[in-house]
Amino acid sequence: MKLNEIVQKLNGKVLNSKINLEIEVKGAGGADLMSDVLASIQPQAILLTGLCNPQVVRTAMMADVLAIVLVRGKTPPAETVQLAENERIPLISTPFGMFEACGILYQAGLSCLEKPVSDQDCFAG
Amino acid sequence: MTEQTPLRKSSLISDQEAENITRVEELAYEIKVQEVMTPNPITMTASMKMQEVLEQFRVARISGAPIVEEGQLIGIISIEDLIRCLIKSDLEAEIQKYMTRNPFTVKGDDPVVEALKMFVSTKVGRLPVVNKEGLLIGILTKGDITRGLLKALQQDYQTEEVRRYRASHLFEDIESERTSLILRYNIKAGDFTHGGEASSKIKRALSRMGASPQIARRCGIATYEAEMNLIIHTTEGGVIRVEIEPHQISIDVYDSGPGIKDVELAMKPGYSTASEKVRELGFGAGMGLVNISRCVDIMKLESVWGKGTRLRMKIFLKKEDTVGEGHAAKSLEEKR
Hints:
The structure holds 2 protein chains of 2 kinds. By secondary structure, chain A is an alpha/beta fold. Chain A has a single domain, classed as Udp-n-acetylmuramoylalanyl-d-glutamate--2,6- Diaminopimelate Ligase, Chain: A, domain 1 (3-Layer(aba) Sandwich). Chain A has 5 helices and 6 strands, in the order H-E-E-H-E-H-E-H-E-H-E. In chain A, helix 3 (54-62) links the parallel strand 3 (45-49) and strand 4 (67-70). In chain A, helix 3 runs parallel beside helix 4 (78-87). The longest helix of chain A is centred in the middle third of the chain and has 10 residues, at 78-87. Chain B is of the alpha+beta class. Helix content of chain B is 42%, strand content 20%. In chain B, strand 5, helix 6 and strand 6 form a beta-alpha-beta unit. In chain B, helix 1 (15-30) crosses helix 7. The chains are: A alpha/beta, B alpha+beta.
């Protein structure tokens, strides 16, 4: 699915300018816990989140996230938009809540790119 | 790249192609009209004869010209106008009879994308370019834009290639028993605004040195969690030190306090001492160290309460992941 289709389906508002909405999105993941994003999201996914701080953009960069969708109609602080602009990561705001936004995209055929995170493979020392 | 194939895939475009398209579109926003336009175009006046237009177009091999009166742009004459005139065998007429008055213009400091939009919406072949005062400074055709974008794209590509080349051949020309490159970053305590900046730089450096996307990602995630730990938990910040060698990446993150009271407990998934403020940032759920351990091959956490903490990590590079030994060598090997 193209990113601009996603923007359309979510009634989204694109918050930064120097970006390309024609890119192909392979799937999506939704989380508010950045450590969970880092642990579970697969490369080339879009991230749906309720968090608005610049750390969301940093997390997206580290985890090779293609675009960030802020749910519940949130307006992020200027630093977040600036960082997204500098790093050229599309930042999209949607009026839908997390549950509904994920539902819309899943129903439209977007795959899940979250892998389960088990506690088994942790080690210490 | 993910190994999971998405269930429904409709695109036929490769990632490489997608990357290039993106850059052209980005450039259309970055480059200004005045950088790609033809400056000081041939101009004419309204009282000149159409015969002269014919001559000028033929000699200068152009297909349109702005009409100027005392420096002010008043119209434009194009080859289409000339054809209309020729059909009527009316070459003795003055330009003002055939020219288009008050033509669409673009500003020199508009981004190229604005001009592209105007070409699409107006269907004109050329646009006079004016400055802030409305004076004519150039003329722009779609050909000018294509040439300008191609040139910028080429420059862009060369710059990044040179950077990558330099970085990826770093270890080749230096002879020693063991060569390594060390990156150091000082991280301030409580500096949430810049949290992740060092990790971004580390990830970028590794990509330039030819590390695979997987290796760059693993390193990026591990250092990011460690960087956030320094920002969240330390009293005076700390240091991230990354040593890059062709066969391994060693990351050392240390601080001078306050230290961890119970290291074993800290390693437990879900255990956290973070404040509400930190949790609001999406961190502090007790998953940081767990995440790190998933990304690295070896992890060692030592801490003395009241003194400080030292986290050492290593990522081993298989032959195909080797960094700093050149793209050329690698692609040769691939061909074999």
